[in-house]
TrEMBL record, chain A:
The gene is LOC108855101. It comes from the Eukaryota. This is Transcription factor PRE6. GO terms for molecular function: protein dimerization activity. Keywords: Growth regulation, Nucleus, Transcription, Transcription regulation. One of its GO terms (biological process) is regulation of growth. Pfam families: bHLH_ILI. GO terms for cellular component: nucleus. The keyword Protein biosynthesis does not apply. Residues 3-57 form the BHLH domain. The keyword Repressor does not apply. It is found in: Nucleus.
From TrEMBL, chain B:
The gene is LOC108853669. This is Transcription factor HFR1 isoform X1. One of its GO terms (cellular component) is nucleus. Keywords: DNA-binding, Nucleus, Transcription, Transcription regulation. Residues 80-103 are annotated as: Disordered.
Length: 90, 294
């Protein structure tokens, strides 16, 4: 390409596109950034949002797990349920 | 009543230890971003213009705040490079693609600005033919170092958030992050389905969660699963702990009567592994990392 390449350009040419590609993909996954599709989102923003988003997801998973466990714990072993579940199995 | 230790050994520390860190970055996120953006905007003008398809530009915000707050980041911000210029090389070596990270924060506008302002290469750019604009921004050099720090810090944060991420290079981390996020999102969707109806929950946990089944349940509840692109493959996995369900106590009695084939507390694992084929989660997540990484 040009002669003013930095010394890492041999590998960085490939990974540069890759990286920007990946960052774009990541941006699409993050709901908050998906709307901001102005094409002007910096990578650091994406990374930052990714981190917070993953933490949020973790929190949600924990929350849902708690609720699910309560739900399942309250399951009685009565016949109606057993019947339904059996029907699901068949 | 909830036993988080049960299955989450590998994970618990990750998620738990992050709880404290939560406050740290998210609140300062905005200001740090903006500072980073401003700093990067002005500093990285040296990159080839031919390496063209840099899609990112910087949101032009000029909002400078708490410069030192970044130092408080929970991750090890190596403080030794607050003065000297050769830290820069340190950064490049320590985080293999950090110089690449700076590419996509560059603004085309800056290139023009850079040219008009004239060039000088300061001591930081030894080894790089970098042209740094002589714009007077307060704490200019220090801010640029901070930016590099921040970038690698963020990558590092991300890495810590990801399970089984043993590779340090940017591409792998980003790749892992993408997969992980897809998995998490899908998982949450399924769990929210399960939550609505306890029969769904039982069915899901016991039948193994095949994609069609989940979709059917979702439709029954009027939920639109938006993850159709990431339809999880049915990958059989060994009895690995499934972290998200670690704290669900399985009602043993019910299971025992209804599912004689599964033996019980082994069945907890097995029930959970019934899920495993569906959740392309961190069971096969790590195996995918090992095997699928190119």
């Amino acid at each position: 390409m040009s002669s003013r390449r930095s010394r890492q350009s041999g590998s960085s040419r490939i990974s540069d596109d890759q990286i920007s590609d990946l960052v774009t993909k990541l941006q699409h996954l993050i709901p908050e950034l998906r709307r901001r599709r102005s094409g002007k989102v910096s990578a650091s923003t994406v990374l930052q949002e990714t981190c917070s988003y993953i933490r949020n997801l973790h929190r949600e998973v924990d929350d849902l797990s708690d609720r699910l466990s309560e739900l399942l714990a309250s399951t009685d072993d009565n016949s109606a349920e057993a019947a339904i579940i059996r029907s699901l199995l068949n | 009543m909830l036993n988080k230790q049960g299955f989450m050994e590998g994970w618990n520390n990750d998620v738990g230890s992050l709880a404290v860190k939560d406050q740290g970055t998210s609140e300062r996120a905005r200001s740090d971003e903006k500072r980073l953006i401003t700093g990067l905007k002005s500093s990285y003008g040296y990159v080839d213009h031919d390496q063209a398809d840099i899609q990112f530009q910087i949101v032009p915000e000029i909002h400078k705040e708490e410069e030192k707050s970044e130092k408080d980041l929970m991750l090890a911000v190596p403080d030794e490079h607050s003065e000297t210029g050769d830290h820069h090389d340190l950064q490049i070596n320590g985080f293999s693609d950090s110089s690449d990270n700076q590419y996509y924060s560059r603004n085309k506008h800056d290139k023009l600005k850079r040219r008009s302002l004239g060039n000088f290469s300061d001591d930081e750019s030894e080894g790089f033919t970098r042209e740094v604009p002589t714009v007077t921004i307060k704490g200019f050099k220090k801010r640029r170092r901070d930016d590099i720090d921040m970038m690698s810090n963020k990558m590092h944060t991300l890495q810590q958030l990801l399970p089984n991420c043993h590779k340090e290079d940017t591409v792998s981390v980003l790749d892992t992050a993408i997969e992980y996020m897809k998995d998490l999102q899908f998982q949450l969707q399924v769990m929210s389905i399960m939550r609505m109806n306890r029969y769904f929950a039982l069915a899901t946990l016991n039948l193994g969660m095949h994609n069609d089944l989940v979709t059917a349940m979702a439709m029954a509840q009027g939920i639109n699963l938006m993850n159709q692109t990431t339809s999880p493959p049915l990958i059989p996995t060994p009895n690995w702990p499934l972290p998200p369900f670690s704290n669900i106590p399985f009602p043993h009695t019910a299971y025992q009567s209804l599912f004689p084939t599964t033996a019980l507390p082994a069945s907890s694992t097995q029930c959970v592994c019934g899920l495993a084929p569906c959740f392309p989660s961190f069971l096969d997540f790590s195996s995918r990392m090992m095997g699928g990484r190119q």
